[in-house]
Amino acid sequence: MKILDPLKIRQDFPMYRHDSLFEGRPLVYLDNAATTFKPYSVIKEGDRYYEDITANAHRGDYSLAHEVDVAYEGARKEVADFINADVDEVCFTSGDSMGMNEIAYGLLPLLKTGDEILLTFAEHASNVLPWYQVAKLTGAVVKFIPLDKEGRVTIDNFKSVLSDKTKIVSLASVTNVLGFLLPVKELCALAHSVGAIYVADGAQSVPHHKTDVKDLDIDFLAFSGHKMLGPTGIGVMYGKKKLLEKMNPLFFGGEMNARFDSCGYVSLSDVPLKFEAGTQNISGAMGLGKACLYIQKIGFDAIEEHELKLKKMAVEGIISNGNATIYNQNCEGGIITFNIDKVFAQDAASYLGSKGVFVRSGQHCAKILPEFLNTQATLRASLYIYNTEDDVKALIEACKHAEDFLDVFFN
Ligand SMILES: Cc1ncc(COP(=O)(O)O)c(C=O)c1O
Predict the structure, then answer these.
(1) Residue 16, SS3 per DSSP
(2) Ligand 1: distance of its center to the CA of 141 in Å?
(3) Could you list the residue range(s) of the whole structural domain that residue 197 is in?
(4) Measured distance CA(123)–CA(214) in Å, rounded
(5) How many whole angstroms separate alpha carbon 42 and alpha carbon 290?
(6) Are 176 and 366 in contact (CB under 8 A)?
(7) Kindly report the CA angle at 335 between 329 and 337, in degrees rounded to 5?
(8) How far is the CA of 126 from the centre of ligand 1 (A)?
(9) Do 259 and 402 fall into the same domain?
(10) What is the C-alpha R_g of the chain?
(11) How many structural domains comprise the chain?
């Protein structure tokens, strides 16, 4: 297996130029679950659209427009290969949130009073609120799969709520606070056994783990470009072609229709264009294609091993500091969620920030989870391919003294 060298990788990322110095300190960026840095290849490809081949996609009959079509559709193919989808099953969106809304509203006609949508307490707002809306409009009911003590979805817990009433199961394959990796293939097979549709929120899984939509047999998948080295404002909704063909789009406008007339008749374009109303984020799509290639070149085995190694080091270091509670010691990925004892998470994050260590604090848009964790807010350090052992040492060292923040505050 290839070993990943984060220092070599950093050379591809302009955020690490100037000898990694940020405000006079080494840049210790540990907020990759929120968004990631972008390599030159992604930035350059986005720029190529603006500098060399600006025209709209799927609209012009001249050579420049043709070049744009080739670049845009080429990006779709790169993304499709990345998740092992067919190319017409990849619909570009503005990000995971838009994808989840398109899926929820698109599946609305399947739902009636009393039907059940299964989620968990650990879901991000983007995988809860669209379903609340759709449930309100249809009389369907959102039910939560019980989590085990650690906060995981287990097969038994899933079976305890799965029934003939279940019409949709929608789960983050990796949750964004606890970072547990779900047994997606097994859960999906069980959902299918009662005739339910399986939707995967891939915002935190697709950047870090190999996602093969055919092998998993999932029906829908949404994810965001910016969490996987790609640009902001671009994401993907994957759907099995036969389901996409039946599903209504949420947005209507240019290019998603084949024809319409004055009597109100509308015929829609074929998938995937049916889900891409209006002018799209062409440079974003092109950049995302290159992000997929970049990640593939590094390889998921190397990414997983690197993140786990650093996570283990962080967990051991924070535990040995003796002043913190960690909520997800055993998670499979590079997310460490914790609190410094007696320090409110946001205060601790400001303190860590003052030491040049950038982590996220709060509820991380998973606003039901604090009930389960029995805490108002947490700190979250999240790793990616360019993080180093020195980053982790800086985190551990800064955490050792985070109670000092209270001294500064109250003395
Ligand atoms: C699990 C999960 N789902 C959905 C989202 C929403 O992603 P975006 O804000 O890119 O739409 C996030 C973002 O943090 C997430 O972590």
Answers:
(1) helix
(2) 23
(3) 43-297
(4) 24
(5) 5
(6) yes
(7) 60
(8) 6
(9) no
(10) 22
(11) 2
Q: Who's near 385: CB < 8 A, 6+ residues apart?
A: 4, 6, 9, 298, 303, 306
Q: What is the pLDDT of residues 117-161, one digit of tens each?
A: 999 999 999 999 999 999 999 999 999 999 999 999 999 999 999
Please indicate, yes or no, whether residues 75 and 101 belong to a single structural domain of this protein. Answer: yes
Give the position of tokens 């899926």. Answer: 103
Amino acid in position 10: R
Cβ count near 61 (within 10 Å): 6
Please give the DSSP secondary-structure letter assigned to residue 14. G
Q: What residues are paired with 314 via a beta bridge?
A: none
In single-letter form, the type of residue at position 229 comes to: L
Phi and psi at 341, nearest 5°, equal -55, 135
Domain identity same for 114 and 98: yes
* Distances, alpha carbon 257 to alpha carbons 59, 235, 273, in Å: 13, 21, 8
Residue nearest to atom 16 of ligand 1 (CA): 176
- Shared domain for 91 and 156, answered yes or no, is yes
- Catalytically active residues are 365
CB atoms within 10 A of CB 41: 16
- The rounded Å distance from CA 334 to ligand 1 centre is 16
Give residue 278's region: left, alpha or beta (phi > 0; psi -120 to 50). Answer: left
Residue that finishes a domain, picked among 297, 314, 338:
297
CATH of the domain at 125: 3.40.640.10
Instruction: Give the pLDDT of residue 405.
Output: 66
Token output for 336: 């460490």
Closest to 310 (Cα-Cα) out of 135, 175, 173, 179: 179
Spatial distance between the Cα atoms of 326 and 179, rounded to a whole number of angstroms: 12
Q: Identify whether residues 128 and 143 lie together within a single domain.
A: yes
pLDDT tens for 262-292 read 999 999 999 999 999 999 999 999 999 999 9
Is 324 found in the same domain as 189? no
Which residues contact ligand 1 via a Cβ below 6 A? 95-97, 124, 126-127, 172, 176, 201, 203-204, 224, 365
The preferred substitution site among 97, 199, 331 for testing ligand 1, maximizing ligand atoms within 8 Å of CB, is: 97
